Amino acid sequence: xxxxxxxxxxxxxxxxxxxxxxxxxxxxxxxxxxxxxxxxxxxxxxxxxxxxxxxxxxxxxxxxxxxxxxxxxxxxxxxxxxxxxxxxxxxxxxxxxxxxxxxxxxxxxxxxxxxxxxxxxxxxxxxxxxxxxxxxxxxxxxxxxxxxxxxxxxxxxxxxxxxxxxxxxxxxxxxxxxxxxxxxxxxxxxxxxxxxxxxxxxxxxxxxxxxxxxxxxxxxxxxxxxxxxxxxxxxxxxxxxxxxxxxxxxxxxxxxxxxxxxxxxxxxxxxxxxxxxxxxxxxxxxxxxxxxxxxxxxxxxxxxxxxxxxxxxxxxxxxxxxxxxxxxxxxxxxxxxxxxxxxxxxxxxxxxxxxxxxxxxxxxxxxxxxxxxxxxxxxxxxxxxxxxxxxxxxxxxxxxxxxxxxxxxxxxxxxxxxxxxxxxxxxxxxxxxxxxxxxxxxxxxxxxxxxxxxxxxxxxxxxxxxxxxxxxxxxxxxxxxxxxx
Length: 485
Hints:
Layout: H1 2-26, H2 43-62, H3 65-75, H4 79-95, H5 97-106, H6 109-127, H7 133-162, H8 167-195, H9 198-208, H10 211-217, H11 225-229, H12 234-252, H13 266-280, H14 284-295, H15 300-326, H16 332-349, H17 356-385, H18 390-419, H19 424-468, H20 471-484
């Protein structure tokens, strides 16, 4: 009877396990990691909002060349001093990135983006009064950089959360807002300056920047409280509570956001140097393209259109390279290295162009390869460091890039004041990008070595487990395989 009772109890437990398995099969919707939350749905709203945020937060910086000569004449100063406005803007933009990442998780992505829109609009409005060059450093420089950083970093982070399989294409589409808005706003800003003045034009742009707040209101985090509460099965409830408790724990631990141990990884060090040298020449062409054309006798409106041609090439490069990267035919590190090398050579050849058709041709070529590089940066960082380290890595890299931002434009302005040639800035940009490509080669080497080491470790663990397995288990495994065959 004891044997019968044991057999009956075994049958009951087996039936319970089968029932639990069937219930788990019938309720796959309760799993918080189902693919329906990613690569579609509300993610397209997040992508569209990030598209607008990227365009608004970068268009003024890229079109600052329209205001460059007017501000230089208004304050009767050197190009070196005027270039500090853009240098401070982009430096603060990079410095505040880790702060924006931390505050986004501490408060919410939506709140930080709205605060960024208010700060950016306020910086343009106060800078339009033109009290002094130092006042513009604090307003058009500091406040705009702080606002743009607060708006851009959380929006990019949300796109990477909502898209997995289509992440390279999604990042490319989101970054296209920069070139689309620059293409549209460059002639519009030039028209405003011609019809009014640079100060009145900046007042109107300040009102346009408030649309950052509208886009921020549309941003919704992927893991919401409602999603955590909808888990009905016990396993799903446990995992959902773990997600909620993990996010709460992250909000309380600010030290988690500044992941300094990343600095011990060689591949991350290479990415830091890549970011530093690439940003030395990143904003220089946007500042000196229009003044360079005006300096060699090109009409003001035609000179402004060069930035539109640049943006058109930028758009094609981002979309094309985003689609190419999505095919995974080549490592993103190697693809980025090729594009950055070609771009550096094209920039160093740019001052050779003296006629307007050649300027248009070089603008389109350089814009195209700029677009390919920008379309790959977030995907590159994700592939090198992983999704779980993206926020921390992006924030730290942006922080170190701020040093390069403070060096690039003033260095180009200093050389312009000495030589009297605005084309000298393109040599600075090309040289910085060429050095940055060399560090990408090193990052690829360390990444390949790390992947090879992890594969060898897995093989050694499997071999160790198979050797430690008792002989009876191996014989049973062989019998089972023979039976199946």
